[in-house]
Backbone:
């Protein structure tokens, strides 16, 4: 059977499965709040947030990601976090069970395929008694068929850290808020720079760097799968922590009115020299700790 034929069969199966979800024939017991409800909860409360995207669900099934190798330990840890019992830690998952009508066609097909292969993982490991929140809170631009609401959503998101002392925990290429005003509402910004790949192995060292700060700090995490484990542990220790994933990238696409996914120049700057040449001196001054893989 050729590739095109296999794709047609896969797409047809995905369409059928999604139709059954939309019509309620496949019963969805998982409650997922939408983006605005998720943002409003973050604004209204001091809750923390841990984010599950498609990648984390794939890892629960034992699959590798581009920047993190799978292991049984990671998979089991993610399963536990997905059903974390304390509601003060908001767990987000993709809001894809009720409708994909607000997604553009490519995004709609992606999530139909995802649901085809991963729906049983959600059904098995999500707690039907728990209220989940939307992972699209940090991926609210690319997927949207109608992007007219993005400006208001990003404006509300920027209020979450308004006048807060923020610690950004990120990879060396990420550059959250660098070259844009995403974090400009914060009172102060300090950064902990983490390994660009397989950061899970560095979680104890990253955690040590984080807990050197007082509990008045708001932590923003962008370290892939490692962020899930950091978020839970920091939350347990009394910190407010938000796993924001690729929020900065989505914000850059929004600011540039990008028609789709585009590469960002700042992701190529790794060395101190390259960052200085790019004019990112303030970013370099904000870096307080660098954590490396052993």
Residues:
């Amino acid at each position: 059977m050729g590739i095109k034929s296999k794709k047609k069969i896969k797409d047809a199966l995905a369409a059928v499965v999604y139709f059954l979800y939309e019509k309620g024939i496949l019963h969805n017991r998982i409650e997922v709040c939408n983006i605005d409800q998720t943002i409003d909860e973050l604004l209204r409360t001091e809750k923390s947030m841990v984010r599950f995207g498609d990648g984390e669900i794939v890892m629960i099934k034992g699959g590798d990601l581009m920047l993190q190798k799978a292991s049984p330990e990671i998979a089991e840890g993610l399963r536990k976090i997905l059903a974390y019992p304390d509601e003060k830690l908001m767990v987000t998952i993709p809001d894809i069970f009720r409708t994909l009508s607000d997604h553009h066609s490519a995004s709609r097909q992606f999530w139909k395929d995802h649901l085809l292969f991963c729906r049983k993982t959600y059904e098995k490991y999500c707690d039907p008694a728990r209220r989940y929140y939307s992972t699209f809170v940090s991926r609210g631009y690319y997927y949207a068929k109608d992007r007219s609401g993005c400006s208001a959503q990003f404006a509300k998101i920027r209020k979450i850290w308004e006048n807060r002392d923020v610690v950004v925990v990120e990879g060396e290429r990420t550059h959250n808020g660098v070259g844009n005003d995403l974090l400009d509402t914060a009172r102060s910004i300090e950064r902990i720079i983490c390994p660009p790949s397989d950061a899970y192995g560095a979680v104890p060292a990253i955690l040590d760097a984080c807990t050197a700060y007082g509990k008045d700090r708001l932590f923003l995490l962008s370290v892939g799968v490692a962020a899930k484990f950091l978020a839970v542990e920091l939350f347990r220790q009394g910190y407010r922590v938000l796993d924001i994933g690729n929020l900065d990238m989505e914000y850059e696409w929004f600011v540039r009115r990008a028609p789709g996914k585009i590469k960002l120049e700042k992701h190529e700057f790794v060395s101190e020299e390259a960052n200085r040449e790019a004019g990112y001196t303030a970013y370099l001054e904000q870096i307080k700790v660098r954590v490396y893989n052993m």
User: Anything to note?
Assistant: The two ends are 46 Å apart (CA to CA). Strands lie at 31-32, 48-51, 89-93, 131-134, 165-171, 188-194, 218-222, 240-243, 287-290. The chain has a mean pLDDT of 93.
